[in-house]
């Protein structure tokens, strides 16, 4: 799936802008600064692929990338950005809800969690949305290189406990470091296995 070309297709701001639901897709969600762009770039083996989603004005867009012709990779806007105006947050939540509930070809959501911080209240909101939409989601820990092994285990057990309360959670947690390359091949294989 990742052997072929990976290209930016379009940024979507409303449901009617979504590309035709003609192939499987996976989406990536996470708090701003969780390392989502870096992880997507590592996954796809491209340096500047997801950077577009970080440029101002693009941040509230759902960004579609093509994995060859076989699948879509969807980069959801980062959430929990403290300075985002309420109206922007509400608009984004409405689009997210519509997207999660209405996208029949969505195979799985990957929710990125900073290994230093674990699951926060703002993450819980997304996890509940995913439960409500019955979209299977999988936690992906980012920046694992920044945390000592002992602390990592503590965070992982916090995450496991939190996930147990969510019916849509996939139990296996993926630990990654885009910096060191840890977990990237694993995540690629998971995506290739479901999309
Ligand atoms: P986004 O807002 O979620 O797209 O986050 P970015 O991908 O822009 O990453 C935010 C910051 O975290 C940047 O300074 C990255 O260099 C850094 N970062 C991302 N992934 C890793 C990682 O695996 N390890 C380390 N040490 N830093 C990372």
Automatic annotation (TrEMBL):
Any one GO BP annotation for this protein: division septum assembly
Record keywords, A-Z: Cell cycle, Cell division, GTP-binding, Magnesium, Metal-binding, Nucleotide-binding, Septation
Keyword Nucleotide-binding: yes
Iron as UniProt keyword: no
Cofactors demanded by this protein: Mg(2+)
One Pfam family it belongs to: MMR_HSR1
SUPFAM superfamilies: P-loop containing nucleoside triphosphate hydrolases
GO molecular function: GTP binding; metal ion binding
GO cellular component entries: cytosol
Every EngB-type G domain range: 22-195
Top-level division of the source organism's lineage: Bacteria
NCBIfam families reported in the protein's UniProt record: GTPase_YsxC (TIGR03598)
HAMAP family: GTPase_EngB (MF_00321)
Similarity section: Belongs to the TRAFAC class TrmE-Era-EngA-EngB-Septin-like GTPase superfamily. EngB GTPase family.
Function per UniProt: Necessary for normal cell division and for the maintenance of normal septation.
Name listed for the protein in its UniProt record: Probable GTP-binding protein EngB
Top-level taxonomy: Bacteria, Pseudomonadati, Pseudomonadota, Alphaproteobacteria, Rhodobacterales
């Amino acid at each position: 799936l990742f052997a072929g070309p990976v290209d930016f297709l379009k940024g979507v701001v409303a449901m009617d802008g979504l590309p035709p639901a003609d192939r499987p897709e996976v989406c990536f969600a996470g708090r701003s600064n969780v390392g989502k762009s870096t992880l997507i770039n590592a996954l796809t083996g491209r340096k500047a692929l997801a950077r577009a989603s970080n440029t101002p004005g693009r941040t509230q867009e759902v960004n579609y990338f093509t994995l060859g012709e076989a699948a879509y990779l969807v980069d959801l806007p980062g959430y929990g950005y403290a300075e985002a105006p309420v109206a922007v947050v509400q608009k984004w939540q409405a689009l997210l809800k519509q997207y999660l509930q209405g996208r029949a070809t969505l195979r799985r959501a990957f929710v990125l969690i900073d290994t230093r911080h674990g699951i926060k209240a703002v993450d819980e909101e997304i996890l509940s949305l995913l439960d409500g939409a019955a979209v299977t989601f999988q936690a992906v820990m980012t920046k694992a290189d920044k945390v000592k092994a002992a602390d990592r285990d503590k965070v992982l057990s916090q995450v496991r406990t939190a996930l147990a309360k969510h019916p849509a959670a996939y139990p296996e947690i993926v630990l990654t470091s885009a910096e060191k390359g840890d977990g990237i091949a694993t995540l690629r294989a998971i995506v290739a296995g479901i999309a």
